[in-house]
């Protein structure tokens, strides 16, 4: 049963990461907010999104991917 729970946990983590990336593409500040909360990264992303959807989306995907990489390496 423990094996099943750990598999479910892994599936939930994968779905969460993918949803954050999808939100980072569609609504960049929302994806950043869910990943970083309120902070400098969110304000930078809001500014980039006001300049254009594409710069905001690129920044969001990069920042979310970087956070996922840091979590995977255990440096966060």
Poorly predicted ranges: none
Task: Write down the secondary-structure element order.
Answer: HHHH
Radius of gyration: 14 Å
Question: What is the overall pLDDT average?
Answer: 87
Q: Sheet bearing the most strands, described?
A: none
How far is the N terminus from the C terminus?
30 Å
- Give helix % range: over 70%
What is the percentage of strand-forming residues?
under 5%
- Counted beta strands: 0
**SS content category:** mainly alpha
Number of helices: 4
The general outline is elongated
What is the oligomer described by this structure?
A: single chain
Give your account of this protein's structure.
By secondary structure, this protein is mainly alpha-helical. 88% of the residues lie in helices and 0% in strands. The protein is built from four helices and no strands. It has helices at residues 2-26, 28-36, 40-51, 53-73. Helix 1 packs across helix 2 (28-36) and helix 2 packs parallel to helix 4. It is elongated, with a radius of gyration of 14 Å. The N and C termini lie far apart (30 Å). The mean pLDDT is 87.
List keywords for this structure.
76 residues; mainly alpha; single chain
Brief summary of the model shown:
The protein has 76 residues and is mainly alpha-helical. 88% of the residues lie in helices and 0% in strands.
List the helices and strands and how they pair.
Layout: H1 2-26, H2 28-36, H3 40-51, H4 53-73
